[in-house]
Amino acid sequence: MQASELTDDQVAELAEMFRLMGDPTRLKIIAACLHAPMCVSDIAAKYGLSQTLVSHHLRLLRAARVLRADRRGKQIFYVAADEHVKRVINDMAEHVCERPPSEL
Prior knowledge:
Shape: globular
Order of helices and strands: HHEHHEEH
Low-confidence stretches: none
Strand order of the largest sheet: 1-3-2
Structural class: alpha+beta
Strand content: 5-15%
Distance between the termini: 38 Å
């Protein structure tokens, strides 16, 4: 499906996903979970955040289908929901890191 073929409901859902990913803290959390599952305590420690705050952000990201949760014993690990999420974040990170062509 092309972006130009989205229904109004799909556009609204996509806009909400981008809004959620636009928060710097949530974007850090997503990036941390792109390639390996991470638990709340590890994410909180990595960024110096409270576990309560991380849990709040994870709840929103799960609801938007950006991240998924996998229970392992007593802990829940979070990882990118699918390859689409990984591609979007990685592609945009590459875009940000590219040097603009020098002006002639």
